[in-house]
Amino acid sequence: MLEKPASSIRFNRILLTGAAGNLGQVLRPRLKAYCSTLRVSHRKEFGPAHAGEEVVIASLENADEMMALLDGVDAVVHMGGVSTEQPWEPILAGNIVGMVNLYEAARKAGTKRIIFASSNHATGFYKQSETIPPTVKPKPDGFYGLSKAFGENVGQMYWDRWGIETLSVRIGSSFPEPVDRRMLATWLSYDDLERVVVAGLTAPIIEHTVIYGMSDNQTTWWDNTPAKHVGYRPLDSSDIFKDAAEAKQQTIDVTDPVAIYQGGGFVKATPHG
Fold first, then answer.
1. Domain 11-267: which topology?
2. Which residues pair with 53 in a beta bridge?
3. What is the domain partition of the chain in residue ranges?
4. Mind telling me the catalytic residues?
5. Contacts of residue 42, Cβ cutoff 8 Å, sequence gap at least 6
6. Residue 250 CB coordination number (10 Å)
7. Which pLDDT tens digit goes with each residue over 225-256?
8. Which residues contact 43 (CB under 8 A, 6 or more apart)?
9. pTM of the entire structure?
């Protein structure tokens, strides 16, 4: 965890959706430093509020609950929704209907900035032999990636029509450390996750910007140059894990789609179990 806020800018109320999810749990204790009140939400009961928090149980697919959730919110860190390849129905509810509900509620509440947890799986069918900027057209590797591409388009439309600024963060692989050789390219440390979120919250102007959520890895398929105006500077790197990852995975089948495409295992994952 960072020792102190990277910016003196503080919000009155920040909403963190998906607060009980893997990355929501990482961000929850960190975001309180940037606001007077942190409103945390999840679709199911997830325990009591901590100091300076408000806990709200709400489902993204319920428009009325989203309206109540966004009331009085200055900025949103949207980590909620389905986060893996699954059948279409839950993805439709959480990531498609839920995304529109969230933005409609934000528009009516006057919320002006959203950090959207998009995914590298929105571009998972680009090859690992390519280096791509965040401005490339989407090539989703499944229903999950498709929903994230849709979410980015929602952010773009709400900027163009209603002036809500969004940073769509195509998160790579945010874990304590890389678990395989693919993650040497996609790894995002927890501290760098905080850094990219805070950069998106505090940058003077972001309009709608897409950025890859990655640490300063020597091996990478992504070039964030078009998003330099956001001011995100990663300070961690997967390089210190390189020897261990290569020792664990000494050979790669270069004919396997998992090794060919940036989406890795998602390019072969079945949404039907």
1. Rossmann fold (3.40.50)
2. 38
3. 11-267
4. 144
5. 17, 18, 19, 20, 21, 24, 57, 58, 80
6. 7
7. 999 999 999 999 999 999 998 888 888 888 99
8. 57, 58, 59, 60, 80
9. 0.95
